[in-house]
Specification:
single chain; alpha/beta; Rossmann fold; N-(1-d-carboxylethyl)-l-norvaline Dehydrogenase, domain 2; 6-stranded parallel sheet; 14 strands; about 15% strand; elongated
Length: about 450
């Protein structure tokens, strides 16, 4: 089996590497010559745990190749996956399908014999129909089927998500296409992974519905956390209490500064626009988007409040900039709202992130960049944890107190326990949990 993966971004590169690990011959295509040259040298354009080793082993086994020559890759392929970006379109929030449709036209020109054209990119309902129309216009003689096969990869655990997924969704009513897709996912059949064959439209909607539901769940627990702050309840216990209900489940019930990343912000917005166009507005999702946008600004206010109501002339140490740990992805990260808000309020911001510094430097200005967490805290008036990287979970608290001017910590990811932090002498602020007064002799310096 031979496939071509069009696009070597997050989805394309991970999917291509994982398919090659399944024994499929994969050619990854990108029109960015510099990116292809980096990949040929074994340099990863993204950070994903384990990806470099997976790519290297399959390149060595000659199952994984990289090229800018789309035509040759498509001519030899049984299936061609479109895995290009679908960012939010400026002005209206609809998914920008420019790259998808451009890929479809190039693929059409290169088709050779029966080929399955698969949309791996996250696309709105009806995109598969438009891709089919484009290919038929360019190549009326082509023998092909268009299939929807959305990805469900979490950044930081994408390889495991591909190799051992909760489910695989495949949208096609063509028997020939179904057989090709069964062969590609044969390894997953053997471990009894649920594989859902459905219509193309249903498959496209399933991806958006999944991400929108998870965004709703995150936003719900964030609002519960705000209520906990007002009445003195503990959001961790509430989340556990409801998460043990099998109808609800434990995942995505972690209060924090709001969702970000490459998927939830753009996919919820695209789903809202799709629903509005169809005359069936999704008011819950519309509200979730609004709440999440406001929450990021509210987090800056929490930091300011923890610093006595003003950060004018104060130095704030920020630990973590990416939207989640184990990725270098800065897209729609809460830090992109929080850091500028602190700067606007007069704060000097020092920051450190284990993997996201290069990306962050392109998106944030006026920040003092540091090489370690402890360097960030040296001489700062307070420290704020924005991303729950493992190395921030076990900081030497005595050293932290020595470095800070005052022992003030704002933990927007709830990775420490309030009572323990109070006992250690910290003025500790978290999300949705009761606060405790620090020992005076420990807190004052």
């Amino acid at each position: 089996m031979q496939i071509a993966m069009i696009g070597t971004g997050y989805v394309g590169l991970v999917s291509g590497a994982c398919f090659s690990e399944f024994g499929v011959n994969v050619t990854c295509v990108d029109n960015d010559e510099s990116k292809i040259q980096r990949l040929l040298r074994g340099e990863m354009p993204i950070y994903e745990p384990g990806l470099d080793g997976l790519v290297a082993s399959n390149v060595k086994a000659e199952r994984l190749r990289f090229t800018t020559d789309l035509k040759s890759a498509v001519r030899e392929a049984n299936a061609v996956f479109i895995a290009v970006g679908t960012p939010s379109r400026r002005g209206d929030g609809h998914a920008d399908l420019t790259y998808v449709y451009a890929a479809a036209r190039e693929i059409a020109e290169a088709l050779n014999g029966y080929t399955v054209v698969v949309t791996k990119s996250t696309v709105p309902v009806g995109t598969g129909d438009e891709i089919e129309k484009i290919i038929r216009e360019v190549r009326p003689d082509a023998d092909f089927d268009v299939v929807s096969n959305p990805e469900f990869l979490r950044e930081g655990s994408a390889i495991n998500d591909f190799m051992r997924p909760d489910r695989v969704v495949i949208g096609t009513e063509s028997e020939r296409a179904q057989e090709i897709m069964r062969q590609l996912y044969r390894v997953l059949y053997l471990i009894e992974t649920p594989i859902l064959f459905t219509s193309r439209t249903t498959s496209e909607l399933t991806k958006y519905a999944a991400n929108a539901f998870l965004a709703v769940k995150i936003t719900f627990i964030n609002e519960v956390a705000d209520l906990c702050d007002r009445i003195g309840a503990d959001v961790h216990d509430v989340a556990r209490g409801i998460g043990l209900d099998g109808r609800i489940g434990r995942k995505f019930l972690h209060a924090g500064p709001g969702y970000g990343g490459s998927c939830f912000p753009k996919d919820t917005l695209a789903m809202v626009r799709t629903a509005q166009t169809a005359g069936s507005p999704m008011r819950i999702v519309e509200t979730v988007i609004d709440i999440n946008n406001r929450r990021k600004a509210d987090m800056a206010e929490r930091i300011i409040a923890a610093c006595g109501g003003s950060v004018e002339g104060k130095t704030i140490a920020v630990l973590g900039l990416t939207f989640k740990p184990n990725t270098d992805d800065m897209r729609d990260s809460p830090s992109l709202d929080i850091v500028p808000a602190l700067q606007k309020a007069g704060a000097v911001v020092k920051a450190f992130d284990p993997e996201g510094m290069n990306e962050a430097k392109q998106m944030l200005t006026g920040v003092s960049w540091c090489d370690t967490a402890y360097e960030t805290m040296d001489g700062a008036d307070a420290v704020a944890i924005l991303t729950e990287w493992n190395e921030f979970r076990a900081l030497n608290l005595n050293r932290v107190k020595e470095l800070l001017k005052r022992p003030v910590m704002i933990d927007l990811r709830n990775i420490y326990k309030p009572q323990e932090m109070a006992a250690a002498g910290f003025h500790y602020t978290s999300i949705g949990r009761p606060s405790y007064e620090p020992k005076l002799e420990e807190a004052m310096v």
